[in-house]
Design a protein that fits this description.
Elements: H1 7-18, H2 22-46, H3 52-84, H4 96-99, H5 102-131, H6 138-161, H7 164-170, H8 176-187, H9 191-199, H10 202-210, H11 216-250
Helix pairs in contact: 1-11, 2-3, 3-5, 3-7, 3-11, 5-6, 5-8, 7-8
Length: 251
């Protein structure tokens, strides 16, 4: 019977699959970062949130951009799944989501985008009250409390839905709701293990910062490949457990 891999084995699988692929993956990451920087700067320059109306326009545009960039997340899931499953990879793989089910990628991102906009709005409110020295007011305390709640919701939602874009590549016929439900089922009992996997990269990121940020691209690629390896391991266990449950049910 297959046993779940721990973080060390997950990362070892990622390192093995990454051999000879770093150039392509770093190139894809740089291309995406350039696109993301261009789009975000365009919004910042096009709309200055100086009034209520412009602030609303700014948040609407930021929301739409967040949804647009989610299609790239689908592409990156496809790219790194190809790495882990030892398939050919290309920089163009990051555009895979625009060609295959972009509507589903957008809908999967929707709850995250709503939370992100809520977090940004609450941070802006906190900053406004700080500038006007209203940190002792009930409104400030209420906004801090709301910010904490939204951040916690986002964090737990991220853990539950972290496998969604990989599932979209494996099961493109599933609806976004079915994909999110399947991600939640896969992550049942695995959220803390995934969280530990994330934490295990903190020392590497600290090293990357100390080393003048140069190694961060390699570390980012390594982390993304490890996340895809985590999915590969957990989805196989999910199907194993499902088949065993079906067999026991027949018996």
């Amino acid at each position: 019977m297959r046993q779940p891999k721990n973080s060390a084995l997950i990362k070892a699988t990622a390192r093995e699959r990454l051999l000879g692929q770093y150039g392509t993956l770093i190139g894809a990451t740089i291309l995406y970062k350039v696109i993301e920087l261009f789009v975000n700067n365009f919004i910042s320059l096009a709309v200055m949130p100086e009034s209520i109306i412009t602030l609303i326009i700014f948040f609407v545009l930021a929301f739409l951009v967040s949804l647009l960039l989610s299609i790239f997340e689908s592409g990156f899931a496809y790219l790194y799944m190809n790495v882990i499953y030892a398939q050919p990879v290309s920089v163009n793989d990051i555009f895979h989501g625009f060609r295959h089910h972009p509507d589903k990628a957008l809908l999967i991102k929707l709850p995250f985008a709503i939370c992100s906009i809520a977090v940004s709005g609450l941070l802006m409110g906190i900053r406004y009250l700080e500038l006007h020295r209203m940190t002792q007011s009930p409104l400030f305390i209420g906004i801090i409390a709301a910010f904490t709640v939204v951040v916690l919701i986002y964090f737990f939602m991220y853990l539950n839905f972290s496998q969604a874009y990989y599932i979209l590549q494996d099961f493109p016929d599933k609806s976004p709701i079915e994909i999110l439900k399947m991600s939640t089922m896969i992550m049942k009992g695995n959220k803390f293990k995934f969280f530990l996997l994330i934490l295990s990269f903190i020392p590497l990121y600290l090293f990357g910062i100390i080393a003048l940020f140069v190694p961060l691209l390699w570390i980012s690629v390594y982390m993304s490949a490890s996340f895809a390896a985590f999915y590969q391991d957990r989805v196989a266990l999910f199907h194993q457990n499902k088949e065993r449950a079906n067999t026991n049910g027949l018996n």
